[in-house]
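forwarding from the other thread:

> can someone predict this with 6-O-phosphono-beta-D-fructofuranose?

sure thing
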Amino acid sequence: MSDPAGLRVGVLTGGGDCPGLNAVIRAIVRDSERRGSRVVGIREGWRGLVEADTRSLSRDDVSGMIREGGTMLLTSRTNPFRAPKTLERLLENWERLALDALIAIGGEDTLGVAARLHSEYGWPVVGVPKTIDNDVACTELTFGFDTAVSIATEAIDRLQTTAGSHQRLMVVEVMGRHTGWIATWAGLAGGADVICIPERPTSVDEICERLEQRRRAGRGFAILVVAEGAHIRGLGEARSARTDEFGHELLGGVGHELARTVERRTGVEARVTVLGHIQRGGTPTAFDRVLATRYGVYASGLVHEAAFGQMAALKAGTIVSVSLEEAVAETKAVPLELYELSEVFFG
Ligand code: F6P
C-alpha cells in the first residue's frame, strides 16, 4: 500500500510510566517525519485529549531521548469513559484537533480505551504495548519489563550477600499487579529460594515447609520473592481502599505481612525490601531501547498503511500486528511451566 504522506499523527502515553516510553516516541517521530508526516504529542495520556493539551514533536525534541526514562509527554491514569461529560469533551476535542491517526502507548487500561474508541467511535487508532508488568496479551513482551527485571535481579543479588552474612530471611516484594512476571523472572535470575505469584496461590504452611527443608539442608539464609498481588493463605486479606479511575486497587504491603508471619512461625530473623517504583524509574536497558524502537517504527508503519484497530506485538522475535480488541480482552498470566521451572530451585 502506498503511504498517504502528510498525516497529523497524535501520540499519547497512559498509565504507569516505564523505561522505553521516550524511545517509542522518538521512533514514531523519526519514522513519521521520514514519511512527510507530523507528530502531535498529547500530554498526560487521555487527560490531554479531554483538555486538548498538546505539543508538537519534532526531530529536535526527541534527540537523545532513546536513553531517557519516564515519558516526555507525561502520563496519567485518566479514564475518559468514567463520566459522560469527560467522554463528550474527548470526542469534541478529537474533532477540533483534526488528527489523522492516534498512537496510544500503554498497558491494559490505556489500550482498552483505545480499543473502545476504535470499535465504538471508529477512531483511527494503533496501540503499542508498554508496562513493566508484562501482562498485555497477544505479545510475548512489553517494553519496560526487561529493565524492571534487571533492577529487581540486581537487588536480589545484593540481598543474597547480606542475607548470607546474617543468616536471615530476606523477603523481596516486587510489582506486577495481578501477574507474577517480574517475580518469576527476577526470582529465577537471582536464584530465589521461594517465589510467590498470583497465578499460583500458596500458603504460609507451604512457604514455611520450603524454608524448613532448606534449613535442614544446612542453609540458614533464604531469599523469598513475593509479587505484590500474590495470594497466600494464612495471611490477612489486606485490601487497599485506594483505587484508580479504572477501578484498580493500589497494591503493596504483602511483603511486610509475610515476613512478620514467617518470622513468628520459623523463628528465623526476617527483613523486607519493597522495591516499589525503583523498578519503573531510570534508563531503559539496551534490550528495551531496541524493542521500544521496533514497536515505534512498526506502529508508525501501521498508521501510514491505515491499518487501524491494531497493536504492534512481539511474536517469535518478529514484530507483527494483532487486533487491539483481542489484546485487551484478557491479561497474560505466567504459564505454569515457567513457574514449575523456578520451583526446581526452591528450598
Ligand atoms: O502497572 C504498573 C505498576 O507499576 C504496577 O506494577 C503497580 O501495581 C502499579 O503500576 C503502581 O501504580 P502507581 O504508580 O499508581 O503507584
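DSSP finds twelve helices and 13 strands in the chain. thats all i got for now
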